[in-house]
Amino acid sequence: MSTSARRRLLRDFRRLQNDPPSGITGAPLDSNIMVWQAVIFGPDETAWEGGTFKLTLEFSEDYPNKAPSVRFLTKMFHPNIYNDGQICLDILQNQWSPIYDISAILTSIQSLLCDPNPSSPANSEASRLFSENRREYNRRVREIVEQSWVDES
Amino acid sequence: MDEIESINEASSTPLVSQLYPISHLNTIFPPSSPFRPQISTLSSTFTSLRIIKGDGSCFYRAFLYAILTSLLTSPPSVLHRLTTYIKTSLSLLGDAGYSKDALEMFHDEFVELLEVTVKDCREKGGQEGMDGIHKVMTEEGGSAEYCCWYMRPLCSLQLKSDPKYSSFLPSSYSDISDFCKREVEPTGRECDQLQVIALAEAFEARVEVSYVDGHDKEGKVTKHTFGEGTDGLMVNVMYRPGHYDLLYP
After folding, report:
1. Taking CB atoms and an 8 Å limit, are A97 and B182 in contact across chains?
2. CA-based nearest residue to B241, from B13, B8, B30
3. C-beta separation of A8 from A64 below 8 A
4. Is the predicted ipTM greater than 0.95, yes or no?
5. Angle at B229 between CA B83 and CA B167, to 5 degrees
6. CA B69 to CA B55: how far, in whole Å?
7. Where does the OTU domain start and stop, copy by copy (chain B) (predicted)?
8. Of A26, A48, A88, B220, which is most buried by a Cβ count within 10 Å?
9. What is the value of pTM for the model shown?
10. What are A81-140's pLDDT values in tens digits?
11. Residue environment code for A96-122, b if the CB has 16+ CB neighbours within 10 A, otherwise e
């Protein structure tokens, strides 16, 4: 069933186009439907507001039975995001289920931005500032937001 | 426990084994095994078994295998009832907040399994029909794998459909949705009793579970029955810690 991953990715693409979640865009590369680029916009009225954060998603032929590998291309500062952009999120690891399509994956990552999970730190400094010095944490997030515009150009 | 692990790790193990005489269990559990007294008891009730691959989906797979083979000899109304159940499930899942787009290809595989494969095997009948089911159930990455997976959202849907299930919820889960997200929907998460009950009731099957835990020197085997199975759908499984296999009387 080597085509089932591609069939599902086309379906995911259609859903993302017809019913796009707010603050999220995504599309496969022209040359390869197994690799996607996406952008998550920082949610309004949060420290992340105004940021444009790029991600890449790589799918295997086992999708949707196996989770894609997802990472931020934009430099991030977040308790659950590693320095190399890898994301520590339950549904991308041990709680992966084929019920999640690309729309759901990106929406979950978007909500993770403002709602970090302190029990699985991937960036210890971000994690420490988030719990001990929220003002400094927010300042560092704002820096990342401004940096994301520079990356854009 | 080593015996169970050695079964689970063998990647060359078929998804569902051939039919073995019940004495095959003696080759899995050596005479010194604490499971042996209960195995002897089982041998007086059951004649044969199939070993199910232990990859975290063994109950779903055993259940589906038993249902499909049961359908070969049951009245046409049972196949009709199950086909209707699967066909209506997709919009019910959509109503419950799941993405129909994400689930549709799994649903379509299940409908096709019932409307094409089972129908075809019923027409062939006898051993040829059974072989047809065995073939589809043992194909790695094949359509039956997709159907086994679709049973997870079906199980969630059932658990969310009736508040009675919440009263069995272990306290480590905040609610039934949390339980479904962590224990039912992720691939490879094994069935516990709550999922077994939900599936039995969702498919209106009767599920008999013989528990072999290695703790009874007298060889007493505890048996639990879930679901009614009023139109004859029967599933017989043996449970040993972390694993289910199919039993035949």
Report:
1. no
2. B8
3. yes
4. no
5. 100
6. 22
7. 47-249
8. A48
9. 0.88
10. 999 999 999 999 989 999 999 999 999 999 999 999 888 889 999 999 999 999 999 999
11. bbbbbbbbbbbbebbebbeebeeeebb
Tokens of B191: 């069935």
Find the helix packing angle between A134-152 and A124-132, rounded to 10°. Answer: 130
- B197: which 2 tokens? 């009950």
Q: Under CATH, which number does the domain A4-152 receive?
A: 3.10.110.10
Spell out where B36-148 has E strands: 48-50
Rg (CA), chain A: 16
Q: Which residues of A are catalytic?
A: 88
Summarised one tens digit per residue, pLDDT across range B210-228 is 999 888 888 899 999 999 9
Q: Using an 8 Å Cβ cutoff, are B234 and B206 in contact?
A: yes
Q: Where are the domains of chain A?
A: 4-152
Contacts of A66 in chain B (CB under 8 A): 187
Interface test with B, best of A7, A14, A97 (most B CBs within 10 A): A97
